[in-house]
Design goal:
flat, disordered N terminus
Length: 257
């Protein structure tokens, strides 16, 4: 009390009491706003985590209770996977039945690994969760690389699990989510200057859909500081489906665009 009284008298005599109070008020308001902001962000992050876990649990439960049910899954994704496992080699299915049997197969390696390991289709519709997670991590990396804000990057990453298309395809063997994950991860690795790894992800992008070639110029632009490493990575992971098509059909693209 005596110390505060002495400070009060000292400030009063020097006519600085008013400015001292105003300065203290400004600091208090600044601290309060900062705490409110942190509290809001923390609440948003926790809510996002809970919502994401809920969506993941619903997809996991559905993949356990129901068989594969996507039209493309039944038509040409899963038949290729199962036939490869049964024959223990890459099987050339008759494209006369469905020309899509000639599509690139890189996006199906995780589903293929699941069937080889567990010899059933019980959770095969949950394998795309990995690509949702990869997309989320890539969004975090891109956001943090651009804005250097960890909380904002976490919030951006959690938004991935609230996208209807992600929720829908996380419980299927469709390859659109894989396609997006490979593209985002390639962008994220380019921003961190991991050009060889970025090229490998770019190769998986090309090995998922032919439309990956439309995105390739953008990725090459991002990797222009070390284009050789990027090109090498792309060739390593992206060439196999096209070599396989040449050997099987005599052309890299089948069916012909």
């Amino acid at each position: 009390i005596i110390t505060l009284l002495c400070i009060f008298i000292y400030l009063k005599r020097r006519n600085e009491l008013k400015s001292f109070i105003q300065h203290a008020k400004i600091n208090l308001q600044s601290i309060t706003k900062s705490r409110i902001k942190i509290s809001f962000e923390t609440t948003f992050i926790l809510t996002g985590i809970i919502a994401s876990l809920f969506c993941i649990s619903v997809v996991l439960r559905a993949s356990y209770l129901f068989p594969p049910r996507g039209i493309d899954d039944i038509a040409y994704h899963i038949p290729k996977i199962v036939e490869n496992v049964i024959d223990k080699k890459l099987v050339k299915l008759p494209v006369e039945l469905d020309p899509r049997f000639g599509f690139p197969i890189s996006a199906q390696f995780l589903s293929q690994a699941y069937v080889i390991t567990f010899h059933n289709l019980k959770f095969i519709d949950f394998t795309n969760f990995f690509f949702a997670l990869l997309s989320s991590v890539s969004v975090y990396s891109v956001s943090y690389s651009l804005f250097k804000n960890k909380r904002g990057a976490i919030i951006s990453a959690l938004f991935v699990f609230s996208i209807p298309c992600v929720i829908g395809q996380m419980g299927s063997n469709y390859v659109d989510l894989n396609f997006a994950a490979f593209f985002l991860s390639s962008v994220a690795l380019c921003l961190t200057k991991e050009y060889l790894a970025a090229g490998i992800m770019s190769g998986f992008l090309l090995g998922t859909k032919y439309t990956g070639f439309f995105l390739l110029p953008f990725l090459f632009l991002m990797a222009r500081k070390n284009i050789l490493k990027f090109t090498l990575g792309t060739a390593i992971s992206g060439s196999f489906p096209y070599i396989y098509n040449i050997l099987s059909f005599g052309m890299p693209f089948y069916p012909v665009p």
